[in-house]
Amino acid sequence: MLGLLVLGGSVAWAQKGGDGTPLPEHFRPAANVATLIYDASPGRPVRLTVVPGGAGAAPATLTLDTTAEELRPLVAEIRELALLRPPASLGRIVRLGDDLGDVLLGPVAEQLRSVSRLVLSADGPLSDLPFGAIRAPRSLDSRGRFLVETRTLCWIDPALDAGGTSGETDPQPIERPVALALADAVYRPPARPLGASMSDGGISWRRHAARRNQANTIDALGLPVIARFGQSASPAFFWESTDGYAVQFLHVAVEALVDPERPVGSALLLSPERYDEQAIPVSTDHLASRLALEPQSLVVLSGLDTGGHGIGPGPFVEAFGAAGASSVVASLWPVVDESATHLFAAFYGSVAQRTHAAAALREAQLRLLAGPLVFDQGEGREPVEFDASHPYFWAGYRMYRGSAEACG
Fold this sequence. Notes:
The chain is an alpha/beta fold. The protein is built from 12 helices and 20 strands. The protein starts with a strand and ends with a helix. 50% of the residues are buried.
């Protein structure tokens, strides 16, 4: 089973690449790990630097037969199709995934065949590409499946190094750690039972109605949980909770927006779709000055919308990294909470069994791909079975760590 790791953000320079340019320290070769670094700068062909795993292996750089300008509409289309959700879009997603897999992975398929993990760095339009939904080229996987079906995906941002350890010593135990769950301040009951008269054949819901259920999946960790739902889901209660408890896990089930023009405009929106007094600004300085997460902490941002700006979840990953997080799960687009509840219940259950967080996320995504899910509507209503195998439900989630070593 191979692993896929994608890196981004600021870097600390160390060794030389195949063209003589420096490579970041967190790309250093490791056993059973190969690194792919995509430079999708505008105005020229995409360059791919390959760093083979193991000591003594020399990096090499090649030029791909595509440019950032050619990739941008493909990334935008596959994101748009994923958000449409109807089964009719799946065929086009598969065809786009085949094309992107051939272009991005095909030229180095032979070098990747024997490695157990793959590290990727991707900038420009590739920052917003749901890599899990591209297809492994036939030269690498004879069945041509979604990448997430054959590999563990772990996206890396070196901003998270501050929250981790070097791997040479065991982390110090946390005294009385807790999990903190935050969900939208506005709750409404479903307008009608799930599955009733939806044109996409899926689910009927009203936004935010199931956020409480999604956030409550953090109970699977077996830690004391501090929950901030409804009226207590306010910035004041959030800062009070993070200041008063040793937060090791933080699950944020609210809308969150990336503003590429104004870093201070990126925010967690506790009032749906509004930037008002209920918003929590997310910038490195603001978050680091007010939020102190415990070492080895994990943050989940399940409602982030990167908007296809070409920067991915970077501003949020960097901000929570500055606040002490060593791992961040971030989404490329908000997903309905009925399926997210299943995904994160499986994710936290695996993490509680000490499964590596990247592997735990992949296992949860594969569970959505495997077959129909059952959603318990409560209040005496019959459970509803629904299909969450479409990429909309699982392809937008990413696991971020600080280095290839941390992802291992």
